[in-house]
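Researcher: Here's a chain I'd like modeled. Treat it as a single chain, no partners, no ligands.
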Amino acid sequence: MFVRQTYDNKQQLIFSLSLKATREKFHFKTKHSNKNRYEVHCEIENCSWRLYAKRLDPTDEFEIKTFNNVHTCSSLQIHPNHKHVNKKVMGTILHEIMGKTRSKVWSPNEISRDLNAFLEINVDYKQAWRAKQYAMELLLGSSEECFAKLPIYFHNLKRHNPGIVPYIQTDYEDSFECCFYAIESMGAFKGTILHAVAMDGNYQILPLAHGICKKESGLTWTWFLEKLYECVGDCQELTFVTDRADAIRVSIENVFPHAHHGLLVKAYKRNVFEELWYRFSSTRPQVAAYLSAIPRAK
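Model: Modeled as a single isolated chain. Structure tokens:
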């Protein structure tokens, strides 16, 4: 912030001040504020830090007229409960961090921990969750903006991929209801689709990514998982559940060396199932007890 710097409106100026105060760990207090002027001082008595801005008539823009950016108070204070912190301030800081480390996926608890350490303030779970939502909106755009791009995306999807059948269903007000697309040309292409899915907070299957390749091999699985890594990163306690394909096992070990890897297996005969279940129950009794609550047919 500097003298003669302008802002679109007073709210944008106040937001920038709040962001600065949070990063630099000080509080400011408002001395004068109306539609034409805005003046703030450091909250510590007799400190020389102060800023004065004025509206540029006839616009809503505010320009900094005077600004003493030097604190003469004893030292910059640590404020665990920073009064200038809100979801936009924390979300903007988090957005800057996420932009540099796109491969990392933060849970609200991790955000709370990292912002507490980085800003030396108390950030609870709800504040962290709101900050993440605002950061994601800055990073990806709002839901409204994303849905507005869907017709253009489907148009180009069909234009550049002959055989794809895309469709968007709207209501009587032309608002989005649902969408559909099918890769009709896969039969002629004789390719393979690679899928990655996860479980969301409601224990429902959530599609993460899919790729199309000529055939399933170690090279194609490695390529697919490398692209997946760019999206999700090496999350803490990340677990893959796959079939017994050796190509997948090797690719996971190479791309996600710290991840857990379990196998999805099937027994097609009752006697084979009973034998495997007996061996499993003997070696993993606690897991077997948990799985026993699931109907045997599943």
